[in-house]
Amino acid sequence: MPVYLMLTNLTDEGRKTVKEKPERIKEVNKEVEAMGVKVLSQYALLGAYDFVNILEAPDNQTIARVAVALSARGTLQTTTLAALSVDEFISILKK
Fold this sequence. Notes:
- The chain is built from 4 helices and 4 strands; from the N terminus they run E-H-H-E-E-H-E-H.
- A hairpin with a 6-residue loop joins strand 2 and strand 3.
- By secondary structure, the protein is an alpha+beta fold.
- 43% of the residues lie in helices and 31% in strands.
- The chain has one domain: Lrp/AsnC effector binding domain/regulation of amino acid metabolism (RAM) domain (Alpha-Beta Plaits, 2-Layer Sandwich), CATH 3.30.70.920.
- It has a 4-stranded antiparallel β-sheet.
């Protein structure tokens, strides 16, 4: 199944929510999984982004639907990148 990196930044409203209820982060992960995307891992970041999520989704359409659904809430903004394993990348180059 395709792997994606989703970089997220919290909005002011999102920061307020996370501060008041940090467990909300894991609740959102469950909501994402209910939309058909598996959360492989998640990290809080220091720097330009607040979180990185490593996700597995059946296709670009599914991950796009999740990204829009999350961003529409107004608590975060997303940047989503498709990822290839190094082995897969090498295999593509050899064709």
